[in-house]
Amino acid sequence: MKTGMYDLVFAEEMILERCTALDTEQLAVANAAGRILAQDITEADAAQDQNAGQACPGTDRIVAKQGCMIGPALHGTLIGLGIHQVEVYRKPLIGFYYLEGEEPSGSGIQKKSNRYILGNALREFGFSTIYQGCIPQERAQTVSTVRMASAVYDAVFVCGGSEPDDFARVQDMLEKTGAEIVADHIDIQPGATVCTGFMEHVPVFGIAGTSEELLTAFYLIVLPVLKKIAGRKEEAHERIMVELSRNFDECNEVTRILPGHLVFADGIVRMLPRDSAAEDHLRHARDVDACVVIPAGMGPLKKGTLLNAYRIRS
Q1: How many CB atoms lie within 10 A of CB 1?
Q2: Tell me, what DSSP letter sits at residue 278?
Q3: Measured between alpha carbons, how far is 221 from 211 in angstroms, rounded to an integer?
Q4: Is the peptide bond before 259 cis (omega within 30 degrees of 0)?
Q5: Which of 91, 95, 236, 277 is the most interior residue, by most CB within 10 Å?
Q6: Can you give the pLDDT of all 314 residues of the chain as single tens digits?
Q7: How many CB atoms within 10 Å of residue 99?
Q8: CA–CA gap between residue 118 and residue 112 (Å, rounded)
Q9: How far apart, in whole angstroms, are the C-alpha atoms of residue 103 and residue 281?
């Protein structure tokens, strides 16, 4: 798998050095351009570094903001301030295709809404995306077109619609490309309709289903992989304990995932499940903080029940 880097800035050598966990590799300072700062850097960070880790209040002016490019000029500024070590990452380039299916005629733009939802979620979490267009199911060059994408992108998506047979079409397409399929079904609801694999060491994802299935699979399965590609130090979602803020009246035979909002009050973290019927799916990625896991066979559950959850935002 092609990965990003946990880059360290060293004053002594004036280079960027990849951490030893990823096989040490030195990069020229000029090649630092394109790396993205993963957190704000303030004068307090410089003062703290110079004072053996002791906090230095009153020096919180921001020197470099989260998300800005690290180039030679900024690198020199950090070195001059005595900041020897920062976390950076690069923006992975994601290419994705929409696979035509047997959608009902007359449904207009709605029949391809999944590609807009997926594209919006990718951008919301900071990934550069290029939509490669709608590809037909039966055309001969379709397979070679998707296969060639692995030479250009850090990850490739083939997205389908919400009809029952769309996921089977997407999975079949990936298999025809020769991709090594690692998982072709995830036993969760929603979110089972995703298959993952590798094509020439590049992660590929086939994903389809309803909007809830698409986004739950994105949060729990796709997002950690993309964070690893970007070189983020904490690619795995943080696991936390939360209280349900309202009753959950269902009982499922498979593991149930509830995306929703985290509410902090009175020293307690509560989870407010998202009301999927009442909100815009294109805003879904901005509305969800975490996903609660309800184990298979558990339920109904009362308000206040403690459950494990995965926090998808820091």
Answers
A1: 11
A2: T
A3: 15
A4: no
A5: 95
A6: 344 433 333 332 333 444 434 443 443 334 445 567 777 888 777 666 555 445 455 457 888 887 777 777 787 787 778 776 677 777 788 988 888 765 544 444 445 688 888 888 888 887 888 888 888 766 667 788 888 888 888 899 999 888 878 888 888 888 888 888 988 878 888 878 889 999 888 899 999 988 888 888 999 999 998 888 877 767 788 899 999 888 888 888 889 998 888 888 777 888 888 765 545 666 666 778 899 999 988 888 898 899 999 998 76
A7: 23
A8: 11
A9: 19
Tokens of 152: 């250009």
Q: How many CB atoms lie within 10 A of CB 135?
A: 17
d(CA 121, CA 220): 13
Cα 20 to Cα 212: distance, rounded to the nearest angstrom: 39
Contacts of 7 (CB under 8 A, 6+ apart): 16, 17, 18, 19, 27, 32, 35, 86, 87, 88, 231
Q: Are 254 and 301 in contact (CB under 8 A)?
A: no
Token digits of residue 289: 């903080």
Q: Rounded CA gap, 36 and 285, in Å?
A: 21
> Among 198, 209, 189, 223, which residue's Cα sits nearest to residue 298?
189
